[in-house]
Amino acid sequence: MSNFDADLSRNTANFAALTPLDFIARAAAVYGDNLAVVYGALRRNWRDTYARTRRLASALARAGVVRGDVVATLMPNTPAMIEAHFGVPMAGAVLSALNTRLDTSTMIYMLRHSQAKVLVLDAEFVAHAMEIAQACPALKLIVDAVPGTAATAQPDGWKDYEDFLDGGDPEYAWLRPTDEWEAIALNYTSGTTGQPKGVVLHHRGACLSALSIVVDWDLPRHPVYLWTLPLFHCNGWSCAWAVAARAGVNVCLRRVDANAILDLIQAERVTHYCGAPIVHAMLADTIEARHDSWRRDTAHRVHAMVAGAAPSPTLIGRLDALGFELTHAYGLTETYGPAAICAPHASWTALDAAERTAKTARQGVAYQLQLGMSVRDPETLELVPADGATIGELMFRGNLCMKGYLRNPEATQKALKDGWFHTGDLAVTMPDGYVQIKDRNKDIIISGGENISSIDVENALYQHPAVGAVAVVAMPDEKWGEVPCAFVETRPGAAVSAAELIDHCRTRLAGFKMPKAIWFSELPKTSTGKIQKNELRAIVAAMQSARPDKPRLEPAM
């Protein structure tokens, strides 16, 4: 024992477990009269919002929820969903926010796997809940009504959300975590192969993830945050907790609609929002369709964060011209959402537009509160040289990495092997130390022995003004083994031929990287806007096998 430990014990006077729950308590105490929630005609301040979260925690405790129990939600971005991010852990429970776009059987799997005790759902999803109730008879169901609609008939035993809160105590002495390593959330991966995995997150990580948003995104005091990003997706990238930390305004939105988003940005003077590239591209398309009215009617600059997939430099440039400052972040469910950010440099403003947007399209550097982010050889763990060419696996370690996968020790050990979280993403380190992802392990195309980054091909296609969304996957080839195959979704009102896109790519790509087939169709996407390449691979496989139940397509070139 050193001199600095002798008679210097940890106690309640000098140590408290980190938790984002403290943020809402402070917001209510310091800025209680400030606006906290906007939802249609509803406007609620932080004092009342805090009281409602305490009511929820109290009501859950009275319903038999104890520390360590799982409370699931099935809700869009409503005030009740924000309240759940505080009220559920205030009861000592673990929040499991279910993806509202999933099929019912997958939801049932998650509820059973998590052993959830309570499901809080929006009335919009009562049809799902009917099946869930039959499959999980011990599950308690609480239903939040859709504003402006007639009450939905519910079976006996189901509780109305507002009635449930009325049974709670607004002064409830909520439960702090006894250890910041305690679980706060259970988020399920997409499960594109096999069953979804339950990612367990702790209070410390949630607190530091939220503070990272504040620090690394320069989130100001009292931001006006629009909920375009689903709260069920990595807890809204920890923004529910971050907005509380800055006593900001949560502008709730049930579903993504470009015109509704733009109207809210103007009406509520929204300062910040997040989303996948497809959401930002949709807004850019809609603004451009409005011609000059957007810039004339919107004087303030909007700060947007993009993650979930790498944005093209073209998209970054378009949004900048329209008054949006787009910040590129990167992360996974296992890292509380974004854990890296493309931190800007003042010197970049002197670069021409192409150079500047190319730099801002990179994944960047670790959040300040994440200990480490590096590109390493997955076998030897040796750092790859910072030459912008040598590919390795992107890895994280530190405060913003999951506890592990619920009841899946093999997967946990594999993901956290050798003291690093292995993302499965292949990347390079640039000479300035910034990381740039080249592909997922499964997305790299190996053509004639050469590695082709699908992202490089996609970025070339995105530079064509008619391209709205694009995904490139491997297509088997007798000569080369694999070649790039592109699926393109055109922008509204735009038209382009495959031959034109091929000519466009010839000036931007090496010959071996050229797409050998281009198909035009709406791209399959997840509820958060990520393009589902696994479905596109299935289409390619069906084309190759010429199955009778799948049309055989010929290259459009």
TrEMBL record:
Keywords: Fatty acid metabolism, Ligase, Lipid metabolism. Belongs to the ATP-dependent AMP-binding enzyme family. This is AMP-binding protein. The keyword Membrane does not apply. Residues 457-530 form the AMP-binding enzyme C-terminal domain. Residues 25-406 form the AMP-dependent synthetase/ligase domain. SUPFAM superfamilies: Acetyl-CoA synthetase-like (SSF56801). InterPro entries: AMP-bd_C, AMP-bd_C_sf, AMP-binding_CS, AMP-dep_synth/lig_dom, ANL_N_sf. It comes from the Bacteria. The keyword Hydrolase does not apply. It holds the Pfam family AMP-binding. NCBIfam families: PRK08162.1.
